[in-house]
Amino acid sequence: MWDRSEGAKVANRMSKTIHHTMSPDYDAMELGEKAPDLSNEKLSPKPRTSRPDLQLQPRLTFEENLHPITSGLALYDASGSDGLVRNDRAISIGFRTLSIQISDSLRVSGPNDGKRTGKAGENDPNFFQQLTFHTITGQQLCQQLNVSPERGLDASVAARRLQRDGKNTIAQKRPQYLWKLLGYVFGGFCSILWVGVVIFFICWRPLSNPPSPTNLALAILVILVILLQASFSAFQDWSTGRVMNSILGLLPSECVALREGETIKMPASELVVGDIVVLSVGKKVPADIRIIEASDIRFDRAVLTGESEEIEGSVDSSDDNFLETKNIALMGTHVTNGHGKGVVVLTGGKTVMGRISKLTSNTKPKPTLIQQEITRFVRIIIILTVGLASAILLTWVGWLRRDHFAFINVVGMLNDVMGCVVAFIPEGMPIGVALTLSLIARRMKAVNVLPKSLSTVETLGCVNVICSDKTGTLTQNRMSVISAGFVDQEFAVDEYHIILAAAGSAAANAAQQMLHKASVLCNGATFDSASAHLPIFERAINGDATDGAVLRFAESVGPASSIRDANDQIFQIPFNSKNKWMLTMYAESPTASDEKRAGNLVFVKGAPDVLLPKCTSYWSGITGETKPFNAAARSELVARQEAWSRGGQRVILVCMRHYISNEAIGSEGYGDEIMQNCLQDLVIIGLLGIMDPPRPETARTVSDCRRAGCRVFMVTGDFGLTAAAIGRQVGIITRHGEPDSLSQVEWRLTEKGSRSDVNAGSDRIQSSLVLEGKDLLNMTNLHWNVVCRYEEIVFARTTPEQKLSIVNSFRERGSVVAVTGDGVNDAPALKAADVGIAIVTGSDVAIEASDLVLMGGFDSITDGIRLGRLVFQNLQKVIGYLLPAGSWSEIWPVILSVYFGVPLPLSSFLMIIICCFTDLFPCLSLIMEKEEFDLLTLPPRNHKRDHLINMKIYVHSYLFIGVMEAVIAHSMFFLYMWKHAGIPPRDLFFAFEKYADGFHGYTQEELINFNNTGQSVYFVALVILQWGNLLSIRNKRLSILQADPFSAKRRNPWLLLGALFAFVVAVFVTAVPGINSLFATAPVPIEFWLIPIPLALGILIMDEMRKLVVRCFPKGPLARIAW
């Protein structure tokens, strides 16, 4: 009997919560849902509860009806927003109110109240320990979720659940807008510019008496500069984010589910708890799913656990822990083998992936290579700036304050220090970089190359080894059977058609009929019903491309549907890249000779080299009888296989056998028995030769990659001869004669005597090499040192683990590796590579593991390499343009003023105008530059040695262009002072405080006006001189006569617009009276607008002469330091 004390507790709690019993929120049934017929269901009486005070004793006579009450207390289910399963639909009507009241009492007054409901339940650390989806039977679970495994949910029910529970998406990390804003405003150069703001404010008040409006205006101007930089940084993030979001929107996000009795494709985000989902190889699990049907299904949980070992899926529970059991497929993991069906139990943020996403939302992203390079440049500039500012401060403290205080007081010293800061920092560079990266991202999208991050673009320019999968990447993945044969006979496909189709099956012997039957039954592909009216070779295929080719071949001989309808499949092991075979099993009726035993008919299809050792007999195509598979038959079959493979065909061996199992079908040990025993004593039926033509663009792409300094290797699971044949067709193998094998690699080791010079850095081996997976098993590091030197390599018969090993071996020897692929077996290598490149038509797993997605053909990879190199070169051009005027030519006026007593030739205000306005827009025109020459002719960049800003660029910008601009601009300043004020340059040097009232007979006001005008002359000279730098910097090697900005090939109208904008700003700053009075500028005499023009042309000519010398003497001293 039921314990009375327990019953009293329940009754007391029920009485306290009676007002909840009519609440529709707690109703166990969805409105409009029809309860399933449970009359034939017998549930296990084993009670489960998370509340000991509600434990029901099994001595009750109605224990089977009460069990769902207790078990439901420990279950979570989206059929109620509280996450508790309401099992009253499985209880007789007389007890439903009791179950509702007990569930409600838990919500109201349970000791763990709030831990299992709503968001609080999601934060419960014991959340998954309390789940029991995996411990009950699949039929019980479907009843509790009110769903039929054969029919799925009704659309109306699914819509209500979706509205209540929300979409099946993981909430993205909410941007920390405050921290982002602080990073934009105080990061990079802005950090030191804020120091300038504070100093200018101090100089305005209280240090200046009366307050200086110029310093106040400068403080405000610097703040505007900071806001301008912050705005462009924010724009870069927004633009990049928009591109990345568009990429994510293009990635596959669909799943296959059962709704209203029909199998449909639907967005994974619209899945709800209770949906029946079909899982197949290569797809990503769209939610946390309880498996109710499984056929050799396996999962890769590396995305969650980091372990590469595959996890086998099963229908039965293998562990009490929800996270460890094999009958739960976790969201985000990948199906690597087999297929199955399951019911969704958790969605969105409630899934394991969702909860992990919350835990990792604060992970700091790793800076990209471009960001690292820019940070390095910023650090160098800030160190130099602080060093110069400190030198000026120490000079004032130790010398000028004592001997020339009237020349530079405290305010003057602070203005000079800030002039140094403003001068040396190229404030326009962050803006130029932001726009350059955004533009390149859009250009890549335009050529169907979608990077997941901008670092991928830059890294792609450094790649020197490309490991490519064959099927679907180098080839079209449009396979067709072109050869059919037996051990002792070979047919052209047309002949086989005539025998089985035209002449009727009666004309074919048993072997020929069996090959046709096996082609249909050992096949995982089906025709899409929507294309059934089309010709056979135009119909859409659901399934693997190889199976699709075999199915088209079989259908062209005779209808496949009639064969499938006449045979009942009871078991299947789909093809995978490890086993390299597929197995199907069909029920077989007892024969007349053995009426008591009914066996199973097994078909196996796969790689000949894997299946041949398991074969003991074969069907004779000539006699239609089975014969022993002796050495002569083996030699004949192997010769046929090799002949077909040399022609580029993928050879498939088709076998059969009869098998009687010991284990029950569907039991946990059944699959293990089949794997161990069923692949023995096989009977060879025949061979099929499948051709997958290369993509039209593949050969050209391989050639272009070679020109770019990238070695292109094939890494495939195909037979070695087939892979080598395709390699020759696409240009991966270009050498005449037979390629080297492992024996030649060992010979090279022997010749070298295993000396230390056998390493990856030695000269390349100008030969071809073909290695198979079995060869890789016996290779040591010394072998890899030799292999990594080969110019042309084909890796055949490789497993996913071996593909990963190949990538790591090349990376360990200094190569920057890109991997292209589209299949599940490519995913580990894609993830490990420096750049993983997936084809958009590939599997979800491959796209998920990749860094970059090719939306078009294989030739898009060369566009990606070009743009990766172009973005780096254009950024160098932008910085090379900014440094001469925006840094070098601005620091020298401060140095001359502080150390040589010259009146300041350039004010801080005009320095800021140069950096942020007159230089900014012309430099932005440089990011529109096209490639100067074919960038694929350059060797890949060494990202460890070749930096964005290097000593060559500093030498060119500072000591070549910068020196010319600084000398000319100072000459314009001194020319104006001598011509218009009559003050020769020798009198301006070491003038210090003498440049005051009475100097050369001028008043203080007149001297200030001369100095203001001289500063404006210096400013105008720099603006115009930069035009010459703009025209010269756009070409690193070519003459402007070879690549002018007007011809179609290198046309860039933005150059003229940028120069025009700079001119307008210069006129505005020097001619507007309000600007003149506020910022101490002055109108510039007309001759000083004209004199710098031929001098700018002179800078262009000087650089043209430098380029000419470099072109004529490419190994001379000038060429070695040329950027």
TrEMBL record:
Keywords: ATP-binding, Cell membrane, Membrane, Nucleotide-binding, Translocase, Transmembrane, Transmembrane helix. Its main location: membrane. Residues 132-205 form the Cation-transporting P-type ATPase N-terminal domain. Residues 1-26 are annotated as: Disordered. The chain crosses the membrane at residues 181-204, 216-235, 377-399, 878-900, 906-927, 953-978, 1016-1033, 1054-1072, 1078-1101. It is found in: Cell membrane. GO terms for molecular function: ATP binding; ATP hydrolysis activity; P-type sodium:potassium-exchanging transporter activity. It is a multi-pass membrane protein. GO terms for biological process: intracellular potassium ion homeostasis; intracellular sodium ion homeostasis; potassium ion import across plasma membrane; proton transmembrane transport; sodium ion export across plasma membrane. InterPro entries: ATPase_P-typ_cation-transptr_C, ATPase_P-typ_cation-transptr_N, ATPase_P-typ_cyto_dom_N, ATPase_P-typ_P_site, ATPase_P-typ_TM_dom_sf, ATPase_P-typ_transduc_dom_A_sf, ATPase_P-type_domA, Cation_transp_ATPase_P-type. One of its GO terms (cellular component) is plasma membrane. It holds the Pfam family E1-E2_ATPase. PANTHER family: CATION TRANSPORTING ATPASE, SODIUM/POTASSIUM-TRANSPORTING ATPASE SUBUNIT ALPHA. This is Cation-transporting P-type ATPase N-terminal domain-containing protein.
